[in-house]
Amino acid sequence: MSVVAPITDEQGVYGWQLTARVRDIERWRAIAGAVVSRLGGDAEAVELARLGVSELLCNVVKHVAHDPRCRLKITREGERIRVSVNDRSSREPKAAVPDWSSESGRGLWLLGQMAEEWGYSPAGEGKSVWFRFPVAGQRAT
């Protein structure tokens, strides 16, 4: 795993500079789950964080292969948790209804169905893709 800076905990904010690699994604899923649990997330919040981190980092690997360095950030915002990945591509993420016969292309759509909200915005040389969900309790339908 290539981690440029260690985890930081600053009033409910955790962040890492990393190089997204397929072989490291399961480890980042585990780290995200542990952080969300530490921030008070219930089992559903932990699993959603794990799924979302996997999707966002896989997208960096797939779509930003020329420079897979990114920043993963997990923040508690009141009764919500926000997970974001800043990458070095300005390519807009797509979350259209997927072609169910295709082998890929469902990740962001599924994440959008499970998270309370998701989005992206320009950030520095690239963009930030994020999703937000409740710390505990019912998810948005």
From TrEMBL:
Record-linked CDD domains: HATPase_RsbW-like (cd16936)
GO terms of molecular function: ATP binding; protein serine/threonine kinase activity
Domain of life: Bacteria
InterPro entries in UniProt: Anti-sigma-factor_SerPK, HATPase_C_sf, HATPase_dom
Pfam families: HATPase_c_2 (PF13581)
Domain Histidine kinase/HSP90-like ATPase: 19-132
Keyword Transferase: yes
SUPFAM superfamilies the UniProt entry points to: ATPase domain of HSP90 chaperone/DNA topoisomerase II/histidine kinase
Keywords annotated in UniProt: ATP-binding, Kinase, Nucleotide-binding, Serine/threonine-protein kinase, Transferase
PANTHER family: ANTI-SIGMA-F FACTOR RSBW, ANTI-SIGMA-F FACTOR RSBW-RELATED
Protein name: ATP-binding protein
Annotated organism of origin: Streptomyces mimosae
Upper taxonomic lineage: Bacteria, Bacillati, Actinomycetota, Actinomycetes, Kitasatosporales
